[in-house]
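User: Can you write out an input/output pair for a complex, sequences first and structure second?

Assistant: Here is one pair. Inputs:
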Amino acid sequence: MSILIHKDTTVIIQGITGREAVNMTREGLNYGTKIVGGVTPGRAGRDVYGVPVYDCVRDITSKTRVDGSIVTVPAAFTRDAVFEAIENGIKLVVVVTERIPRGEVAQMVELAQLRGARIIGPNCLGILSPDEAKMGGLGGPAADARKAFTKGPIGVMSRSGGMTTEICNTLTAAGLGQSTAVSIGGDAIIGSTYAELMPLFEADPETKAIAIYSEPGGRMEAELADWVREHRSRLPIVAFMAGRFMDEMPGMRFGHAGTIVEGKADTTADKIERMRAAGIAVAERIEEIPALIRQELGKRGA
Amino acid sequence: MRFYEYESKALFARHGLPLSKSGLAHSREDARRIAAEIAGPVVLKSQVLSGGRMKAGAVKFADTPDEAAAHYDAIVPIVVSGQKCRAVLVEEKSQVQQEYYAGVTWDGRRKLPVVIFSDMGGIDIEQVAERHPDHVSKTHASTLLPPMPYLAKEAAAKTGVSGADLTRLAPIVSRLIEIFFRYDLTLAEINPLAKLEDGRFVVLDGHVDLEGDARPKHEKLLAELGIRPEETRQARPPTDFEVRGAQVDAGDHRGVAGNVVEFDGNLGLVIGAGGGSLTLFDAVRKHGGRPANYCEIGGNPSVKKACALTKLVLSKPGVEKLAVMMNVVSNTRVDIVARGVVKGCIESGRDPAKTIAIFRIPGSWEQEGFKILKKYGVEYCDRTVSMYEAAGRAVMKMKA
């Protein structure tokens, strides 16, 4: 099993004729994703690798079931595209675009909550359920994605797109496949945080453990620690914390838009302490993750 | 992106917030003239991008224009938390009865803006939040509904403010909320918001942070406030090396070669992407390496861009070798980065084989990339070598 997407998930791409989107379409189709249409205003009637292009989302949703949309349009048009997807009934929106002001992100998130939709991102590479489907550029070309990602029991969540692939590749090399890998995005406000995705992994019988990649900035790790404690999660979690050098450099922005140390709660030292206190194992290096997962699973007799 | 106090106040003034008479002094003569115009006691405040001015002695009171001129000279050399004084704000001194706090910022967990209000404002507001939580209110606002005045009224009333004070305070806080939304701010703060002896309310100090990603949207405002595009407004001003790094990134729209930050080590880093750079920088330091710089490449940069970044890093005095490393890449092409860094070494008059301590970028087009590196005798590794291990190899070579 997987979370969010599987082989029958139907997907559209908003901004499908853009350079990156064209690659994403080809890679997605090659990976087996059911891409049923694309949207670029004024380009109706064309096709991208056989995927028909329309002017409006409703031109597709009025004809066929659409489970998810990948939004990859310039930052200035992203809010509009996300609203269009949600108001046409799409329940899963992956926002790839970066550099969207957080006020606009918060509006998308608030609308999604009102309509019962879920946003992944922005500033993310998307979702990949090995051997099922992928939404977004995660894993790159299908052949590369198959090298790094394999089917298995580990759920992966990462604030960095590139590190999602790195971690899955490390898990794969150690014989641990993944149920679903989610690049959750690097911004200060994102559609779905670790804690908000945990219930989905918790409900997925195939997922046995979680690996996360985290960074300085924000309260997402504290929120996860609280969630784990309050819900007595059955899933052991192993986290990797990058950017430890940033603790010495408050007020400087490195990495992603959301990665900045502004107060004590934003430092990596504080986050590590909180997570460990909640029973989350923290790896010192990426390559320690597989062994730590096996150790945690062993403790729980799995 | 933080605004200076005088810029925050200029923004507040446009939206009708009550302010005291003031002027910005760039010389002791300016300070004397402004104080004479105000014709009464004044306060002189250093314009720095940092709090803690009062404790650093960068805020002084003067009764006469001569005294104001003397204080100007005393304030200018004071460095507050590493920030130099840009100018001195000379402002009419107010007779304060009570200090309030009003701020709007983002609550990352709720993903909503939150209005924070206190009837115990002033420099110790953080302690008030801890010790007197009943004197600090938090009121969340919707991002979809237009900001309504009742939010401000509720925020103030929750701390016990009522009567004429409430009807005078609420419109000020309401305008602050509007400003927060209108300009994509991440913080709009008035502290203190002072009640004067005569019952009027005045903004004594203000602090505004504009979201970096919203800068293009508010170019006009920034130009009108005199904020230049190259001002980064981070915790410290950018170095010349960092400014040139930004030029490399801006020089070619293909991919990213950005966020160049200068350090004082001898190992130049060409690393990526966002998360990969954080991971690799930690790894180099953990092995005892001394990075010369931080940077982020990604999003499939062109040969030209990778080459320009390589040349920039190699131009930094004391850089002995380069480590070129990324996480497993999906859309960045390994061969293009390889071509760029090799070219950058050669154009810098350096032998790529001796200069590049390690090349660890596995992923798309890796076979083509490895072929190029082999040809030039550069040590490279594939995904079977971890990021941590690769960083260790580079550091080992520096010690050899």
